[in-house]
Design a protein that fits this description.
The structure is a single chain. The protein is of the alpha+beta class. α7 packs antiparallel against α10, α9 runs antiparallel to α10 and α10 runs antiparallel to α11. The two termini are 45 Å apart. β2 and β3 form a beta hairpin. The chain contains 13 helices and eight strands. It folds into three domains: 96 residues, no CATH class; 146 residues, no CATH class; 135 residues, TATA-Binding Protein, CATH 3.30.310. The protein has an eight-stranded antiparallel beta sheet.
Amino acid sequence: MRPFTLGKLLSLGLILTILLGSIIGCGGEAVAPTATSEPTQAAKPAEATQPTATSRPTEPKSTETPKPTATFTPTQTPKPTDTAAPPTDTPTLTITLTPTPQPIPAEMLTQITTTYMIMIMAQMNTEMVAEMARRVASGELSGFDSLGAMIAVSAFIGAVLEAMPSKTPPAFWQPYWDEVEAIHSAVAGLVKRWWDKEIDSGEVLKQIGPLKESLVSALSAAEERLAQEYDVADARELAQVREEAMSAVQGIFPTTAPSEQPVATPDDLQSGGLGLSREAWEQAHAQSGTGPGPYINYDGGTYSITFVDGNLQHLERNYGADQPSLADARSAGALLIPADSQLVRSYSPEGLPELIVDLYLSESLKGRFESDVWIEGEPGNFIIVYGVFGGKVPRIVIGTGNNP
């Protein structure tokens, strides 16, 4: 990732400075060998022993061989030493490198990298919520895919909510960190309200837009501030890191593509709800918004529905203040299931005596779904769950499989 590239660049700058300093030091010592190499010419005194002609012994006077000594005078010519002087001038090049910005200390680099990545995750969470709401509202995301997306996004949000209080940004970043944390908390609250069915995907889309803009603005300001503080990072480079991360959001969510060849047409199934195609269901019911995750609300919230493979797989019948008895609720439930449904048995889950579960089998339902929707049941199984509180039933839940 780029933040680590930035750290490597800083470390590389430090290493180059050290290496350059050592090279300059070696250059100064290299002057000495050039001076000592000259005395090799002093071997000429050996040539001065040419007067070895012993036929003239009196001439040893010419032992005043000052000529060899004269050959030393060239050695003292400071010119070789002068030629070595320029390398000693080269340190001025080092001085031009020294003013480069000091590298960020290792502990500061870790702090910056960690907090920056958390802020990027906060933006990713915001983008994911916006994308999920858009796809749910358009019908691109539904069924188990939508439910799974909601659970996954909530987990990411929870991780950032947990991480932010335990991390401390550099002092110059604190204002931006606080702003990102506040915006991300607002996004988390928005998702919770969606999950609790207080708002639908349309309202999420309406509120998430300004939050996205504020978050982008805060992160851009944080990047600019880092670049000014250390003069080592181009804010555009850091922004590119975020852009690459955000571009990945599009591919996170699976899209529930409508089946090109429906397993069964609406006319093939006699049902008041479960197993019907979306088209057949919406001929009799008006969509009134979206609930949390995969749910789509109809008739002012009376029904909350999920579709899988284009057909109704899960249905909730919600009652307001006028709640029916168990007997009346069962009569209402019978109108929402396939006509060939056969009751297999009734039971209450262990530890939940207030729940009454009726398990059914429908042969016509078996061919309605390509996906495996028969959790803990056989193909064709479905259940109706009644929650009985004070003799009244506030809600009926109908779904495929046998998993209350």
